[in-house]
Amino acid sequence: MLGEVAISTPLWLSAPCIPPRNCNSIPRICFLRRNSNPTASFSQTQYFSHLSSYPLHLSPFKDSKPQAQLSPNAASSSSVEYTEEPTTNVKFQRSLSLPGCSSSLSLIGTGYREKVFAIIGVKIYAAGLYVNQSILFKLNAWKGKSAAEIQENSSLFNSIFQSPLEKSLQIVLVRDVDGKTFWDALDDAISPRIKAPTSIDELALSTFRSIFQGRPLKKGTFIFLTWLDPSKMLVCVSSDGLPASVDAEIESENVTLALFDVFFGNTPVSPSLKDSVASGLATILK
Asked: Which residues pair with 148 in a beta bridge?
């Protein structure tokens, strides 16, 4: 298995604000509404962070252009910004809301998964990591670290995993894949990381397997692996945009940790994804 490195443009953390009059910045979506206080001197223009309830807006991928598009999962008056994974050209929402999550999640980085057949690299899926923004405020110990330093030190990714706040991996298939084939590849990566599986681990793996067995996964299918806390993970599969429900709940810290390690451990199946996430975190924590 081989994953080529394709680092997405970094992101930055900014508070929504009224841009200066003479600032040549990228236009932002805004809504005008009447101020109920006629004496207020503040401008009557309010800026909203899309799909986010936090005062800080995570704006990923500094150089990519915002794309305002209608989404069937968003309010009709809202616009959704996307970031494109450069190798597969798959577009990821910069923030989204998922079943089972207490708040919206923000995109940190993207990458892709490639498998080699007869020396030819075949792209299987694109992936993006989303996190609850509150996690980012608990990473001050890594403030000022470079992307390379974050990559070499696994403790930051371990801190993200151990946080009792949501983080979700979105997988978008870029070709048709049989469900059994997809699970077998995932199981081949997970199982060696669980040295002595318990009955709880076996049950969790069986539940995980049942989601994909006999299920054709078409190009464009979304798979969300959402860690609620270190021992609990939700799995959602949708062939029609963002999922509306949860397909399964996995409760086994050994299994959830092994899966996180598959993508963000020392030998990730998608080096480009981990590179991009490390770059994004380094930019945020400057």
From this structure: none
